[in-house]
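dude i think i finally got it to work??
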Amino acid sequence: MPPTLASVVRNTSLHLTVLAGADHLERPVRWVHTSELDDPTPFLEGGELLLTTGIKLGRTAAQLQAYVHRLADAGVVGLGLGVGLSHTEVPQPLVEAAAQRGLPLLRVPEPTPFIAISKVVSAALAAEQYEAVTTSFEAQEELTRAALGKDGTTAVVRRLAARLGGWAALYDGSGALSVVAPDWAARRAGRLAAEVDRLRRRPAPSSAALQGRSPGIDTADEDYVVVQSLGADRRARGFLAVGTEDRITPTERYVLNAAVALLTLTLERSRELRQAEERMGAALLRMVLAGEVATARQVAAGLFGGLPEGTVRVLVAGAGQGVDASEALGELGDRAEQAGSRVGEKLLVAREDGTHGARLMVLALDNGAVHRACLGVVEEHEGLSLGVSAPAALEEAGTAHAQAERALAVALRGGRRSVDHEEVGAGSLLPLLGEDAVTAFAEGLLRPLREHDRTARGDLVASLRAWLSRHGQWDAAAADLGVHRHTLRYRMRRVEELLGRSLDDTDVRMELWLALRSGEE
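look at this
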C-alpha cells in the first residue's frame, strides 16, 4: 500500500501537527512537491503533499481561501506550511479554509527540513514498489506451479481468488461457467452472463470493469468486478472474471495479468497440436462420409475415444456470396467442441473451402448438445446459414451429408438461418433452384401469353393455370373458370400456337407449371 498522510504524521522524527482535515489522513500520498508559487497547480498531477513556507501567500482571508480551493480542486491530498520564515505560525484563515474544504493542513516546525519529509515519503514509495515486485514474482511462481499441476485451470482460478482475497470464475468460449472459486461465488459469477456475452462478440483480448458492484448483487455484497477474455488470435477461447471488495491495486493487477497469460496458454495449447487434432478429426469425418465407418472407428478409438454412437445428423454451415464468414465458422466449430466436451458427447468437425465458399461440416448426435449449440450460433451471426440432415445411422452419414448440403442451399437462397432436410422433402422444388434463373425462365416462357392477355380478349395465363392444376380435365377446369369447356379448348389451342409447343408433352406441362408457380413464390 502507498504511504498515507496518517503514516507520515505518525513519523515522530518529523514533529508534524495536524491543524485541519484530520478526518482525511488516510489519503495515499503519491509524491511530495515543494512550491512557493501562489498558483502551483499547473505543475501538479494530483495526489501530492504540497510543502510551502508561504512566501507568496496573500495575507487576506479571501486570498488564502482562494489558494486552498485551487489546491483542493487540483487533487492535492495535503498541505504542509513551514513556520519560522514567512510566518511565525499558521494563519488562522488558512486553517479555516482548509477545514472547510476538508484539505489536511500540517504545521511543519522550523527544525524539520522539507527534504526530511520527502525522504520519508520516497522511502515508503520505494518499499511499496519493492513489495509489489516481490509479491508479483511470488504470485507468478505460485500460479505457474498451479498451471503445471494435474488440475491446471481449476488450480489457477483457486489460487488467483485466494491471492486477491475475493472470488474468481472461468467461463468457456460459449460463455458457460466452468470453474468458480470459492464455491459460494457461483451465484455471483452466474449473474455475469450478459457481460460475458458482450465480450464474446468482441475480438480477443478485451476486458470490462464493472465499478461498484456485480449486476444483480445485493447492496450488502458489493463487488468490484473485472471480466477479461482469453485468446490470442482474436477468437475468445474463454473468459476470466474476478470480484474484490475494493478496487484492484497495481500489484493485484500484475497478479491478474499473470493469471490471464497462464490461462490463455492453457486454453490455446500448442497451435501445432491443435491444428493436428483438427486435421485428424476432419480426416475421420471424411472417412465416415465415404462409408469407411469400420476403419474410422478403429482409428478414433485410440485418438478420440471413439465416434458418436446412435442416431446422428450431419450439419453443414456456410454463408452467401460476398459474406466473409471465417470468424463465424471458427466460432461455430469452437462452440460445437465445447458443447460436446461439457457433456462428454462425441462429434466430428471438418472445414472445407471450395467453389461454394467456406463450409463447416459437423457430425453429431441427433438433438444433442452439439446440435443445439450449432443452431444457437447461426442465430447469432448475420449471413451464416445451416443445413441439417435427417436423423441417420452412422453408416448412412454420406447420404445425410448430401441432405444437409441441399438443406443449406435452400437456407442460403431463402435467406434463412437454418433448414432441416425434412422441410426440403416436404416442400416445393422451387426453393432448390436459383431465384434469378427461375424468374428469367418463367418470364421468357410466359411472355407471349402475357402479351396476348394485355392486347386481346381471353385470359390465357389464368386458363392455363386452371387447366394444369386440374391435370388436363376440361370440365373441372372450365367450371373453375366459369366458362364453357369449348371456350377453354379454344384457349388451350391458342396457348399452343403462341408458345409453339404441344400441351400433350409431359415435359412441356411440367415447365409451364414451374413457370406459373415461380410467380406465386
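The radius of gyration is 38 Å.
im so relieved honestly
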